[in-house]
Amino acid sequence: ANEATELTTTKEIKFAGKSLDAGTYALFTIPREDDEWTIILNNELGQWGAFEYDSTHDVLRIDVPSQSTEKVTEAFTIRFSEIKEDSTNIIMEWDQVEINIP
Known about the structure:
By secondary structure, the protein is mainly β. The chain contains no helices and seven strands.
């Protein structure tokens, strides 16, 4: 339950408009109070949470606007929306906040 979340892609993709090579990446989020979250993809796999996080292994780092929602999401949730043959959006939800990564 405390292992870093991992994202795997089998081909190069655009992640929020930035190129990301095929592979598996540890995914970290930094929720901020200024209506943005920092999303980090890191190539150091098998990490236990963020306790040994090392930014020198970051492959991609983006800031994404967050939106307030009326719905409360107790557990951090990742889901996909607008799924098409060659694209999707990644939605991350936590508490009363949602972010959308095209």
